[in-house]
Amino acid sequence: MTSRKIIRSLAMGTALALASTSALVSTPAHAQFGGIVYDPSNYAQNVLTAARTLEQINNQIRMLQNQATSLINEAKNLQSLPLTIVQPLQDQIRQTQQLLNEAQRIAYDVRTIEGAFDQHYKNVPLGASQRAMVEGAEARWQNSVAAFEDALKVQAGTVANIDGSREALGSLVSASQSATGALQAAQAGNQLLALQARQLADLTATIAATGRAQALDAAERAAAKAQAREQLRRFLAIRPRYLPGGSD
Q1: What is the pLDDT confidence band of residue 218, given thresholds at 50, 70 and 90?
Q2: Sign of the C-alpha dihedral computed for residues 113, 150, 192 and 85 taken in this order
Q3: Residue 31 DSSP label
Q4: Among positive and negative, which fits the CA dihedral 72, 77, 80, 83?
Q5: How would you write 121-181 as a 3-class SS string?
Q6: Using 50, 70 and 90 to split pLDDT, how confident is the model at 242?
Q7: What torsion do the CA atoms of 64, 65, 70, 71 make, to the nearest 10 degrees?
């Protein structure tokens, strides 16, 4: 190969290299495939926008799920306790009240008690006949016996309520432990307080009935002492006086 041919070949290679470089530099950032223009930068932007939109949708879905869970919990909190012992407790309290209302002779009434004490206890008629004094003592004794009988009845009613209290307590504790919401737990607690209130009512009735019997018994003994002194005075007044050294 001559030197001229070598120079020509080098010149043609250089020209082709320059043409290729020019073509690469001037090529735009998009291509055309079958009439569809493909822009990589626009495609990337669209993908980023779609990803952001999907993230927003996922956030909204999570918000809706949280709201649904909150509504379910609120619905549980509004559910009422399926167990109630209010009516049995009220019935038991009425039974105890009925026993108190059936008090014999001297009832649980302030005016009745004042009248009975003025007549039979505080102002014992010491100037009355022997027969009247015996009848008064008999009436006071019957008041005491009746009061003790009433106290025993109330105590028996209270003891009878213990078994019902045990069953109610077990049911309420079980219901409280299995409560599905705040309302059910609160209602179980309120009914436990109601049960305690009924037990306190039974205790109050028992103390009142026992105290009534003890008070009437103490008043009967006090009146009996006063009457005994008067009867002794009368007995000594009608008995012949003993004279020391007198003849047989």
Answers
A1: very high
A2: negative
A3: E
A4: positive
A5: HHCCCCCCCHHHHHHHHHHHHHHHHHHHHHHHHHHHHHHHHHHHHHHHHHHHHHHHHCCCC
A6: low
A7: 70
- Which string of DSSP letters, residue by residue, matches 176-230? HHT--SHHHHHHHHHHHHHHHHHHHHHHHHHHHHHHHHHHHHHHHHHHHHHHHHH
**Encoding tokens for residue 94?**
């009425």
Q: How many residues does the chain have?
A: 248
Closest CA to 12 of 20, 241, 173: 20
pLDDT value of position 147:
93
Measuring CA to CA, which residue among 168, 176, 173 is closest to residue 86? 168
Residue type, 77: N
Which of these, 145, 150, 146, 141, lies nearest to 120 by C-alpha position?
A: 141
Whether the full predicted model's pTM is greater than 0.90, yes or no, is no
Return the closest-CA partner of residue 203 out of 93, 87, 113.
Answer: 93
Instruction: Give residue-wise pLDDT tens across range 195-212.
Output: 999 999 999 999 999 999
Closest CA relative to residue 121, chosen from 225, 233, 229: 225
pLDDT at 42 over 50: yes
Contact 207, 195 (CB under 8 A): no
What percent of the chain stands above pLDDT 90?
A: 19
β-bridge mates for residue 31, sequence order: 38
